[in-house]
Amino acid sequence: MQHRTVFEVMTHDVVTAAPGTPFKEVARLLSEHDISAVPVIDDGRHPLGVVSEADMLRATAELPDLEGRWAGVRPLSQERGLPDAETAAGLMTSPAITAQASWNLVETARTMHRKGVKRLPVTDETGRLVGIVSRSDLLKPFLRHDSAIRGEIEHDVLVGTLRLPAGAIRVAVTDGVVTLTGRVDERADIPVIVRLCRWVDGVVALHESIDYAYDNVALDVEPPR
Fold this sequence. Notes:
Radius of gyration: 25 Å
Structural class: alpha/beta
CATH topology of the largest domain: CBS-domain
Low-confidence stretches: 73-83
Distance between the termini: 43 Å
Strand order of the largest sheet: 3-4-5
Number of domains: 2
Order of helices and strands: HHEEHHHEHEEHHEEHE
Shape: elongated
């Protein structure tokens, strides 16, 4: 039993820009393809950075108004008389934060949350761009039908992985919420069952009411001194 990988949910046909792609061409790519960001890649398809709508708006927000007043701190490039960000190289946020196609969705979501980004360019083992994964892509497993979730829990987890007799644990799934009922031999088995079932793709929440014949948890607790 494994979580889905990034490769299974990512967008494979990626719209990209080169470092020298002009500002207006980047804007056209975002509009024409109805996307919010483009990876910037080199000639070997290695990600250098990402240009997002926020990057482009930030560049325009830093321009002076008609009377020459700056909105905030004047950029260093303007102070030195250097040109504005005219190309993707000047607009992009870099270095690129990437994911690997083999990552599972849990570690990918954690990376997005930790880095505060909405999407990640996806690379293969050589570092070449092969896709892009967004936050909405990570939600795709929650579109699984309840019957598919129940089937995976019953056959792959309970019988296949835990070797429990078929029907020992009854599984009900409603809108991704799993309810487990039944009886096992040892109480210590219950947390293991819950943990493995909770990790099945598409499970929103899990409730259990599992009885046990033998309380081997209480026996492991040392008596108070």
